[in-house]
Amino acid sequence: MGQTISVSAQIEIEASLAVVHSIFMDFARYKEWHECWTVEVVDRNKRPADLKVGDQLRVNMRGMPMVFHPYVGGNSSESFVWEERLPGILYGRHHFIFASSEVTPGGTTFIQREDFQGSVTVFFSQKSANDRGVSANWEAFNQALKKEAERVVALA
Q1: PANTHER family per the record (predicted)?
Q2: Which residue of 23, 67, 93, 94 has the lowest C-beta tally within 10 Å?
Q3: 90-103, pLDDT tens digit by residue?
């Protein structure tokens, strides 16, 4: 399948894993706290918390020229994964990881990482993927998630 290019963005959040995960999984509220992305469950009868491997999403990321329809690759309290395939051309597996912070007591380390594989990856390097703004979009999302989670904690 060719080389693998991995891109990531990470942030420390002064809020518990449960708070950060709950905000992340509430796709319908995304527009209330950021403008980076919209995520919708294609099957309107399913809630994000109930998504299983193979369920489909509709995702629109600001700055991307298209809406894409990834499939859920995993859904737990520690991570959420979606996968997108363009057969023979590109395969991407996007991880959203919720880890207990080793820096912020009681806090969360939130990590986004995508592993890209496929024939087109021969034209990219780790640096070129970042230079194309891939991680910049994720960093904007991470900042917005941090701000919302810390706002929710402050109100409690």
Answers
A1: CHROMOSOME 9, WHOLE GENOME SHOTGUN SEQUENCE, SRPBCC DOMAIN-CONTAINING PROTEIN
A2: 67
A3: 778 999 999 999 99
